[in-house]
# Entry
Amino acid sequence: MKRLLSSLSLSLSLLILVSMLIPSKVHAVDISVGATTWYAWMVRDYSEGDGTFKAKLDPAFFYGPVLSVKLNDDFNFTFIYLYGKFDATMSAPGVDLKLIFKRQDADLALNYKLNNYFKIFAGIKYIGHSMLWVRDEETIEHNGYGPGLGISLTFPITDNVFILGNIGGIYLWGNGKSTGHGKLANYNESGVNSTLSLAYYIASASTTVSLGGRFQYFKSDYDYSSGTMWYKNKIYGATLMATYSFSI
# Structure
C-alpha cells in the first residue's frame, strides 16, 4: 500500500509539472479513471552456479487502478498499477521448494500524438516482487525502477469500436534484500511489454470497456559477490479494463 501511495503521489506531481510546462490548447481537461485486471501465467527460468532451473507458477489475477489525463490535443498522461500473487514451486535437482510470489507492476507515461492512429510514449516503470519461502519462512524482496519507451496504436473499426495496442521496451535498476541476510545484490532488468485489445465505447455511460491480452518478457541479471545469477520471466494472459471519462 505504501508503494502504491508513493506511485500515485509521483503521478500527480508529474502531472502538475507537465501541465505547467506544456501549454494547453483548450481550457477543459479530459480525464479517464477506472480499473483493470490481468489473468496471467508466469514462466520463470533461472540460473544458479552451473545449473539452470525453472519455477512453476499457478495462474493468478492482477488488478489495480487506471488513470488517463488529456492535457491537450497532442499530449496525454497515463498511469497503471497492477498487483498479483502467485503460488509457485522452485524446482532444483532433488528438491521442490514451495513459495508465495507477490508482484507489483506500475507504469507512468507521457504520450505524444503523432497522427490519428499512432502515439509515442516515454515514462517510468516500476517492478517489485517478494518471495516468501514457505519452508524457511524467509522473504526476499526485489524492487527496480527505470525508463520505458514505446509506441501505441488506436485503430477505429466503427464509431464506438476500436483496436488498441502498444509495445515498449524497459530497462530497470534495483536491488534485492532478505529478511534473514539483509541486502543481497544489485541487479538490472531489460525487457519488453506489449498489449492488444478490442475496446467498445458506451456513449450513454461515458465508459470504455476493453478486452484483450498482455505479454511481458524481461531478464534480470544479479551481481553477487560470489558470482552472477539471472532470471528470465515470461508473463502472459487476458486483460479486462473499464474506464469512465469526464471533463473538468
In short: The two ends are 28 Å apart (CA to CA).
